[in-house]
Amino acid sequence: MMIDRRRLLASAAALSAAVATPRLAWADAPAGPPVASVRPVTETLHGVSVTDRYRWMETPSDPEWTPYLMGQNAYARGVLATIPGREALAGKIEAVSGALAAISAFQSAGPYLFTELRPVGANTFKLYVREGMSGQDRLLIDPDTLAAAGSHVSLDYWSASPDGKLIAYGASPAGSENSTLRFMETATGTVLPDVLDRAQFGPAFWTPDGSGVFLNRLKEGTKHGDPDHYLDSVVWHHKIGTDPATDMKLFAKGLDPSVPIADIAFPVVVAQAGCDVVVGVVQNGVQNEVEAYVSPLAAALAGKPVWRKVCSTADDVTGAAIVGSETYMLTHKDAPRYRIVKASLADPSFASATPAAPEGEGVIKGLSSARDGLYVQTLNGGVSGLFKLAADGKRTPIKLPFEGSIGFVSTDPLSDGCWFLLDGWVRPPVLCRVGAEGAVTVTDLAPKPAIDVSPYASVEVRVKARDGVEVPLSILYAKNLKRDGTAPLLLDAYGAYGIDQDAAFITRALPWLDLGGVFAIAHVRGGGELGEAWHLAGKGLTKPNTWRDAIDCAEYLIAERWTGKGKIAVEGGSAGGIMVGRFLTERPDLVTVAISQVGVSNATRAEFSENGPDNVPEFGTIKDPDGFKGLYEMDAYQHVKDGTPYPAVLLTTGANDPRVAPWEAGKMTARLQAATSAKKPIILRVETDAGHGVGSTRKQRDDETADTYAFILWQTGDPRFQPKG
User: Rounded to whole angstroms, how far apart are CA atoms 109 and 140?
Assistant: First the structure.
């Protein structure tokens, strides 16, 4: 049994919702972008007058909205289509991304090994199964077979029953993340008649006997775009083969006065094979710290759980796992790099817990329970580690095949050992098996790609920020690069939710490096690379550290001649839109190209979107004076100044985005286009068959990457990408 809030949040960092619409020839493109109506709304918030010129865009039914959005998209496509070299670059990106068999998830259950894989050359991730390591992979779930013409369907999540006989899986169309839950027999591939909608927040958690699942469902009648879309979700117990209308409501706001659940909470109930309790977890929006309760399994299955409190948010617990008769909790209370405590299931409260693993030099990132112990994932200086913690407290270090980053750890509570995915900036991923004795075997489940990585290298440095704090910076480059200050450089940063930007094999970056570019990742404050203190140093009123760390890293890269003035592009996606938007508005002189991918740019209004309320724990609310102060400082839209010579800007959005509303990009585009005194292009690229990037196809990501690189190379002066005439 594993509870990890970061697993849900990680997809919030998914970027690049790219395009499937036909590319426009220049002759088809409008001469200029549509000019949005200015209908100012002015309000006074905590003594500050705030004017919103384009508030009307927040109403999708406004007759001007869709023509404006589609007009901006048409203009952007026309601009991008004129860039020489773009099509050839797209071909190279497609070739290298298609050469990798990408694994996103794995589970061992009963005799089966399940792998979520995007095969070589495939466009979407699919679920495969084999019996044992010597078995042959068999395709179980192919979302392409579920898609309507002109669109695509994504496999959002899945989980196998403890014996592996059944699969519960969620899929959604067009990047909407609006999952419908279905079930399949592993042996035959037969899809069962049970269908449950509003199942956006998977996976479903199986009962120990595999007879049913516990799942979170959104409230009945809600729809995409409603401001309360995600409020008041409910955990149900569904028995396989029964009418969902007869499901038992198990865990929700107002069900049990001893279990307070806020409207923004995402409650979940987790069970584990071989365990006679269930754990109810209250996840308050995007807050990492959870509240947890336990109930006897039998009472929960009868629809009458008897909850005992395990921990509150004040205990700073972010993850937990059960091994045998003990529960282990991961906490940053009095330990910013985290520590592990344990308690007996007979008395599982945090108050009665005893130390199991102290805070160390590295950050403890996650816990996974197996029959032979607890597997613990760590991160130290950008390098992952793994060790097994036995019931008697003995630690067994696991020697990894190479220094890299662990993408996930997968365990089976009924089996010994674990599985993990390992890769690096210039090391393709491998799926490894750890035996009970601690030996590591590299499996063939992630076949080695036909990609020569020998021309590339990476380096980790620390950059002293303006306040003296050292910021980790990863730099990727081709070994034949001349550090003379002339290389175009793409700087990426995120810095929110305590999420890490761990080393990962980014195939699409290789053509960029081949063209002489440098790719850098600034691990700015607000992320979790250095523990909870690092997260808090870029949250709320300290959020300016996030974009100023990125600014300081850009200046370092110039000083060290990795690049030069006029050669820097900065990108951020989702919550990273705050970083890139405020970098752009605070230092427009330093950046040549800004890329905001489905980014947050209007922070003072974000809480009024469907995904806004549950993000209040991370970013604050304008209803609170300090919350407003922090949000106003984060709001790039409100910091755009008339008459400023802004650089080239490429913004993107997905029409079905449930996380960052398209009107944020729409407003920011209109404001920049009206305010700039320069003649640099400011364009908005819209994907009509995608959302936030979660579930986007390989082709969509390839196309957006090609557009992004070509746009940067054009604006940074690469002669191979300069339009004629």
Answer: 15
Is 710 within 8 Å of 723 (Cβ atoms)? no
Amino acid, single-letter form, for residue 75 = Y
Find out whether 654 and 663 touch, Cβ atoms under 8 Å: no
* DSSP element (H, E) containing 73: helix 65-81
Q: What is the dihedral of CA 698, 703, 705, 711, to 10 degrees?
A: 180
Per-residue pLDDT, 31:
84
Residue 192 neighbours by CB under 8 Å, 6+ apart: 166, 182, 183, 184, 185, 240, 241
What pLDDT does 258 receive?
A: 95
725 by Cβ neighbours in 10 Å (0-12 / 13-18 / 19+) ranks as exposed
Phi, psi of 535 (to 5 degrees): -60, -50
d(C-alpha 406, C-alpha 200), whole Å: 26
User: What is the length of the chain?
Assistant: 725
In angstroms, rounded to a whole number, what is the distance separating the alpha carbons of residues 497 and 524? 12
What is the arrangement of strands in the sheet containing 234-239, beginning at the earlier edge strand?
205-206, 212-217, 234-239, 248-251
Give the pLDDT confidence score for residue 25 in this predicted structure: 34
Distance between alpha carbon 443 and the CA centroid of its chain, in Å? 26
Given a cut of 70, the residues of the chain with pLDDT beneath it are: 1-29, 725
207, 215 Cβ separation under 8 angstroms: no
Residue 440, C-beta contacts closer than 8 angstroms, at least 6 positions apart? 398, 399, 400, 401, 432, 433, 434
The separation between CA 119 and the C-alpha centre of its own chain, rounded to angstroms, equals 22
Interstrand relation of 593-597 and 648-654 (parallel, antiparallel or unpaired): parallel
Q: Which region holds residue 296: left if phi is over 0, alpha if psi is between -120 and 50, else beta?
A: beta
Residue owning tokens 């865990």: 251
Give the residue ranges of DSSP H helices in 518-645: 532-536, 544-559, 576-586, 603-606, 616-619, 625-634
Q: Are 520 and 490 in contact (CB under 8 A)?
A: yes
Alpha-carbon distance of 673 to 616, in angstroms, equals 30
Angstrom distances, CA of residue 11 to CA of 276, 526, 575, 692, 695: 31, 16, 12, 9, 10
pLDDT at 55: 98
Cα separation, 530 vs 527, in Å, equals: 8
Of 80, 53, 67, nearest in space to 674 by CA:
53
Tokens of 61: 């039914």
SS3 558: helix
CA distance 615 to 392: 40
Please give the Cα distance from 524 to 545 (Å, whole number): 8
Beta bridge partners of 311: 292
Alpha helices in 177-325 (DSSP H): 297-301
Going from the C-alpha of 645 to that of each of 340, 648, 669, 671, 678, the distances in angstroms are 51, 10, 15, 13, 4
**Mean pLDDT estimate for the chain:** 95
Tell me which residue of 253, 239, 226, 229 sits closest to 196, measured CA to CA.
Answer: 239
SS (H, E, C) 172-230: EECCCCCCEEEEEECCCCCECCCCECCCCCCCCEECCCCCEEEEEECCCCCCCCCCCCC
With contact defined as beta carbons under 8 Å apart, do 701 and 16 qualify?
A: yes
Label residue 232 left, alpha or beta by phi (over 0 means left) and psi (-120 to 50 means alpha): left
Query: Which one, of 643, 497, 646, 657, lies nearest residue 581 by Cα?
Result: 646
Rounded Cα distance, 466 and 446, in Å: 43
Consecutive H or E run containing 603 = helix 603-606
Q: Which residue has 């986007």 as its token pair? A: 696
- Give the C-alpha separation, 199 to 297, whole Å: 23
Flag whether the pTM goes above 0.90: yes
Q: From CA 533, how far away is CA 592, in angstroms rounded?
A: 32
For tokens 């089996």, name the residue: 415
Nearest to 223 by CA among 205, 198, 248: 198
Which DSSP category does 330 fall into?
E
Which residue spans within 254-336 are E strands per DSSP? 265-270, 277-284, 290-296, 308-311, 317-323, 326-331
Beta bridge partners of residue 126, listed in sequence order: 117
> Taking the mean position of all CA atoms in its chain, how far away is CA 156?
13
Amino acid of residue 18: A
